[in-house]
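User: I'm preparing a small set of examples for a lab meeting where we compare how different chains pack in three dimensions. I only have the primary sequence for this one, and I'd like the structure in token form so I can line it up with the others. Please keep the answer compact; I'll paste it straight into my notes.
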Amino acid sequence: MSERTYLEEISIRNLGIIDQSTLELGNGLNVLTGETGAGKTMILTALALVLGGKSDSSLVRTGTERLVASAQFNLPAVAPDLQEIVDSSGSDISDGSLILTRTVNSDGKSKAVAGGTTVPAATLASFADQLVEIHGQAANHQIVKASRQRELLDRYAGAKFAKELTLYKKVFESYNDLKARIKSAVDSASKKDREILELEEFLLGWQKLKAVRGEYGDITNQIARLSSVEDLRVASAGATQALSDETSGALSVLGAARRFLDIAKGKDSNLDEINGSIAEGFFLIDDATRELTSYLTALEADPGKLDVLQSRKAEINSFLKKYGSSIDPDEDLILLAARA
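Assistant: Understood. Below is the structure token output for the 340-residue chain.
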């Protein structure tokens, strides 16, 4: 007797034109014949429902609340894949058979039961892959799957090839493992090569940049000064005039104050102290006036130098954008110098 699973019985109630019917099938070839409209398609529809097909309320017989379709499969032997589905779903196959049932209500709701346990419709579809092979004129539900094709080929080969198949699987697993390890090694080597290339590129760029400590801040200050020469000239000239004007300048005013206080010098220590503070202020302002005069003399526009400084700043910014960490530019350059 064959050990293949087969459909023993299918029962239908309130499906399309069928009020109630039970069809018993035997092990081997079974043929359904009948005139058009006799219900052959309804039997296949019922089978599709119990195997997890899409439910449709239009299938419910007019005037009834629900349709019920069930199928009983004989299980002479249980394949490991089928047993796994049985265990995960909690279905009962203790008597050597499995009953799948599908109920569809007139409102469209459906219920699936496998071996006495309520399950999702997707579980019925999982059973279908192990229980039934459906062939049609245009397509085959299973044969198009590569895994099913290999299964059929292995089944055809028979038991004498089982040992070779097991050995092949072990060799194939070893091959895949070795292939993965080689890929990992190649990826790791490629990563190191990229890191070395990036370091070489960084060193070359650093050597070309030739950055000096504090250079960025100094360049920024020079650019600010050269970009505002006229404003700086007006400011320093005005300050110099305010300090050194012979009639109303700060030095003239303080000089006059010192001369008045010198008349009473030595007559009151408190006044002498005040006179000393004014004298000190006079000398400080006099020094500041000399520095302003020198600054104003040296201040001049230099468009060529400004262009050079701006180009240098752009060069440093380009390098920092690629290798810096977006902190203070001069601190960035110090860290990059240590890295180089």
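A couple of notes for your slides: The CA atoms of residues 261 and 267 lie 10 Å apart. The beta strands are 6-15, 18-24, 66-74, 97-105, 110-114, 117-119.

User: Perfect, thanks.
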